Amino acid sequence: MAGILAIGMFLSQGIEDIGARANLIGVDFGSSFMKATLVRPGKKFAIVENTAAKRKTEAMVTLGTENRLFGADSLLASGKYPLTTFAELQRTFGEQFDAELVQKMKEHRFITNEIAADERGMVAWKVTRADAGGEESGEELLHSEEVVAMLLQYVKMLAEKQAEASVRECVITVPSWFTYDQRLMIRDAAEQLAGLSVLQLVHENTAAAVLFGIDKVDKEAQNHTVLFYNMGGMDTEVAIVRYSHLNVSEKSKKLTPYIEILAEAHERDLGSKDLDLVLFDILADKFNALKEREGKPDLRTNPRAAKRLLKEAAKIKEVLSANKQASVKVPELLDYVTLQLTLERAEMEEKASELFARVAKPIEAALAKAGLSMDEIHQVELLGGGIRTPKVTELLEKALKVKELGVHLNGDEAMCFGSAFIGSNSTMNFKVAAVMLT
To answer: Is 432 helix (H, G, I), strand (E, B) or coil?
Structure first.
């Protein structure tokens, strides 16, 4: 946390108000959470807090009978409105509709929304709204951009409330595996629907690497190579970054930081949410095996019960990240039957063996692309919530052949602070420390 505060103070000292009282935000639009950093002329960089004064917001929205619910409110309402709660949008955003794939997502990822194809053949959402009296008020088709725009509008509203002024410009992080079409779609969602002007779309690890280079790398360092390992909610991304300094002016001896992205690699279906699903399956099987459930349908066929158990699985994962076992109690989960048991971490690790077997794969791929070996990596930095899983850090230490893995950045906020810095370099409204990025 100290590093984040330090960078905010450092940047605020370099910002000059050049007359245009513009504000911008750096948005980390993740699969599980959204974070944003507000940049104002003459002010410190500041994280945007939501209505509950939290620094990160669940990246989900619920269309209720009369209003929209975001973040924690959406999470709480997901059991009541499973068909009109939208989460993990990166999994389907910009994807072509495929009936077989959609069926697999419903069966294995418990997406309860009614998925349809839009006029472009891409994934969209069929929504049947009901009024306050429960009467259906018609069916509509929501495009992926429309749902994402709702979340971006919410972030914009929070930022404007905190700034007490309008916020127009933004930089948004995207996964490194996003296609050209997906990048166009998220830009359209922001600019055409959410009222934001997108200065840049940047890769998540690139944003974190910029922040790291300003705050953590020796100002005179040359050819300092860092491997960033980022396990988020939906995927795992690796970037290999080289830091050096260049003299870009013949008149000045001042060196400019030079940040070079040497290689990137990813595993799309390897994230902390995948561990949630492993735990969900364990709990669902144990619930189905109860004597009281004999002859009754699989819990997975009940959307409300499945959503409720998924939320419980996420909580249990957090407990197991610090303990070898967790007590589970879900009162009246379905048909007035309570699930109560003690779950061992070892059982979760055994069931998740296929996931853990892929932990090191993006590292190997990135090193091969960069033409480097681990002996040429000077430092390893971990990002994302997935690294809190003990088995993940154990496997990384083995794969990377290091005794200690670096966690010098706030893994939850580095991306939004880094994107905010990149944004402030992309507009004439601010003047910050010069950085070269390739």
So the answer is: coil
